[in-house]
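Supplementary notes for students who missed Thursday's class. We covered one full example, reproduced here. Read the sequence, then the structure, then the short commentary at the end.
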Amino acid sequence: MQTSSYRGVDALAPTKHFLIRCQQRGIRQQDLDFVCQFGTSYFAPGGGVIYYLGSNGRRLARRRFGLKLDHLKNTVLVFSSFGCCMTAYRRSRPQRNWRAA
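Structure (token representation):
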């Protein structure tokens, strides 16, 4: 996995759990970059960052670059406070206790 950096988050060392979850959920490296670039960022409990790619982010990607990211609908990426990719999953909407970053 390559190093990527968006909005101050560096994905330097993905955890084993993260790699397994990405493989199980069919999320590729390129998809991770799209979620971080077009997704909405939230502060995670414990000082991390959460990226959520909802309909607004997918619409933005389609308008600006002609990208169809429908296969990434409702994808969530969680980064720890020390810059490690922790997990990836799908969620129907952002959690209520997530605060916008």
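Commentary. The helical segments are 16-25, 29-38, 55-65. The longest strand covers residues 85-90. If anything here is unclear, bring it to office hours.
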